[in-house]
Write a structure and sequence with these properties.
299 residues; DNA polymerase, domain 1; three-stranded antiparallel beta sheet; 12 helices; 3 strands
């Protein structure tokens, strides 16, 4: 089993060009299965001898141990990939993990900010300081374009079209899309870029990062998160708020104001409409709350 796992991880590294973090996750998932089967059988089994019934028992054990449904689904995905590789390599005729269904996910509604809270947050950075202008530009772009924080951190100078009011975004799976930005975000970007040049944080070339730290290096996603935490304190907003909350708020506010769901899907860069549909539930919840507040016979 260990030899097959090592060959599989090498395949991920060489042929699939998987990241070290991805490889680490697969390794841990396979090690957990080996440990379970070793306890069950008293020895490490040959990978081709593992059957669906044993894997069902493994999944049941994960449920009993209190693992999250998302973790169980990820482990099943790892096992399907591993045994599919085994079919290719010839050490198993079938994929015993294929018949196993992922646990049904309970989808919670995403946390969103109201329009008033968004205004408070966008007004929190100090406009008289270079990093304050940078922070305001970051918050404006996250909300105006509905970007993932990784997409924002990856923006380069060549990705900006401020006159046209858009940015080129590299999303999941290296897919590119053009995201429109509003006049407030464009203005905030212009103000930040102007002060960045004067302060010496400018790096030449189309691949220069748009958002940098005080040393002129590209901001990381964690740095953006810490920046947001600071401004949440000063503005007194919900501490559950993350950079992704601005993306949730972007989608919810568009739907609340009449945007059609397929347009929002394109703006978010979602591959599937199902992913976008959760925001329709948020909007419906908002309508229900408004109805109960306003209608005299609602309660």
């Amino acid at each position: 089993m260990q030899t097959a796992a090592s060959r599989f991880l090498q395949y991920l590294r060489v042929e699939r060009n998987a990241s070290e973090l991805t490889i680490k996750s697969y390794r841990e998932d396979l090690e957990a299965l080996v440990e379970y089967l070793q306890d069950l059988r008293g020895e490490v089994p040959a990978p081709g001898s593992v059957g669906t019934v044993e894997l069902r028992g493994y999944v049941a054990a994960l449920h009993e141990a209190g693992y999250a449904k998302t973790t169980i689904a990820r482990r099943l995905a790892s096992l399907r990939s591993f045994f599919r590789f085994g079919q290719r390599e010839g050490w198993t005729d079938t994929n015993p993990a294929k018949p196993l269904r992922n646990p049904r996910k309970s989808r919670s509604l995403p946390h969103c900010l109201s329009s008033e809270d968004i205004e408070r947050l966008l007004g929190a950075p100090t406009s008289g300081e270079p990093l304050g202008l940078r922070d305001r530009a970051i918050l404006e772009v996250l909300y105006s374009a509905g970007l993932r924080v990784s997409e924002l951190a990856g923006l380069n100078a060549a990705d900006l079209d401020l006159e046209g009011g858009s940015v080129r975004v590299r999303g999941k799976g290296r897919k590119e899309r053009i995201a429109p930005i509003g006049s407030y975000a464009a203005r905030a970007l212009n103000e930040w870029l102007a002060v960045r040049r004067v302060s010496g944080r400018e790096k030449a070339g189309p691949a220069a990062p748009v958002f940098v730290n005080k040393f002129g290096r590209r901001l990381t996603t964690r740095s953006v998160g810490r920046m947001l935490e600071k401004h949440l304190k000063t503005s007194g907003l919900d501490r559950r708020t993350t950079p992704h909350t601005l993306r949730h708020s972007f989608a919810t506010h568009l739907l609340d104001r009449g945007a059609d769901i397929r347009s929002v899907q394109e703006l978010l860069g979602h591959k599937s409409l199902v992913t976008t549909q959760i925001y329709t539930h948020v909007s419906t919840a908002g309508l229900r709350a408004a109805y109960e507040r306003a209608h005299p016979r609602a309660r």
